[in-house]
Amino acid sequence: MAGSTTAECGARQQQPSGPPPRMRRLKPPRLRTIVILAVALVVLGTGSVWLLYGSDWLRVERVSVSGTRVLTPAQVREAADVPVGEPLASVDTDAIEARLRRKLTRIDTVGVERDWPHGIGLKLTERTPVLIVQKAGKFVEVDDEGVRFATVSEAPKRVPVLKLMVSQPGSAAASLRRFGEGRLVREAARVARSIPAAVARATRSVKVRSYDDISLELGDGRTVDWGSGEQGAAKARALTALLKAAPDARHFDVSVPTAPASSGN
Predict the structure, then answer these.
(1) 261-263 and 251-253 as β-strands: parallel, antiparallel, unpaired?
(2) pTM confidence score
(3) Is 232 found in the same domain as 173?
(4) Do residues 228 and 173 both lie within one domain?
(5) Which of 110, 126, 142 is the last residue of a domain?
(6) Structural domain count of the chain
(7) How many Cα atoms are found within 13 Å in the side-chain-facing hemisphere of 166?
(8) Which residues, 6+ apart, have CB-to-CB distance to 188 below 8 Å?
(9) Backbone angles phi, psi at 263, to 5 degrees
(10) Quick check: 260 and 238 in contact, CB under 8 A?
(11) Domain carrying residue 148
């Protein structure tokens, strides 16, 4: 039999004679390393807490106000009563918002934000009157949701007067008993926000005789029967078309927007 070839002998010599080497195991961290890391985390956490609540670096120093129209920033700051000098992280922003809403009913929306590192920002929008109610020589402003939010000594310009005719007998009194004055005011506000812009500028009063009997009086003596606050967009389009088609008419009826009418040329 022929002997082993040189290649076969070399292959056998290259093969490991013992078992395959084992993978090296990762050594677990030493106790000393664990202790050092734990101490570092505690120090870091303690330092962070001290920085936020104990140091003088992150405290309230200023209060900024934006979005005011009628209100002044000074009025807003006074009502907000932000704790100047306190740690910024501990300021109760919800409490500030609640105080503003309670003290300043003219505010519609408000946001209270931390302005790091030293400020509190108050961003608000004010309610806009769409109606006014005359009362004891003054004027109560009513927004587009029917909220009576402020009493002023001078009537805002181009805001119609709300006239509740519910003291009259008949359907007016029945409507007041059924819906209540608040619901009727909200319905009138719903009508006011639907009036076309060109007509709104000329509207002097909104009369409410019942829930579905609301009318407009324009500055030149013309009148508009609007009905209820429902289908406001359709009624607005119908009134705009009527004013163009019959510019000399004195009375318009859009209470049924699919069948508008005008009269009194």
Answers:
(1) antiparallel
(2) 0.75
(3) yes
(4) yes
(5) 126
(6) 2
(7) 22
(8) 131, 142, 146, 162, 164, 206, 208, 214, 229
(9) -160, 175
(10) yes
(11) 131-263
Are 100 and 180 found together in one domain? no
Residue 121, Cβ neighbours under 10 Å: how many?
Answer: 14
**2 within a domain of the structure (yes/no):** no
Question: How many CA atoms does the CB half-sphere of 89 hold within 13 Å?
Answer: 11
Q: Single out the residue in 126, 159, 178 at which a domain terminates.
A: 126
CB-side neighbour CA atoms (13 Å) of 152: 17
Residue 49 lies in a domain: no
Same domain, 117 and 227: no
Mind listing the pLDDT tens digit of every residue in the chain (265 residues)? 445 444 444 444 445 555 555 555 555 666 666 656 655 565 455 544 443 454 556 789 999 999 999 999 999 999 999 999 999 988 999 999 999 999 999 999 999 999 988 999 999 999 999 999 999 999 999 999 999 999 999 999 999 999 988 665 555 566 777 778 899 999 999 999 999 999 999 999 999 998 999 999 999 999 999 999 999 999 999 999 999 999 999 999 999 999 999 998 7
β-pairing, 62-66 with 107-115? unpaired
* 170, 208: one domain: yes
Instruction: Return the ∠ at Cα 211 (arms to 209 and 216), rounded to 5°.
Output: 55
Look up residue 252 and give its amino acid.
Answer: F
Token digits of residue 53: 């609540």
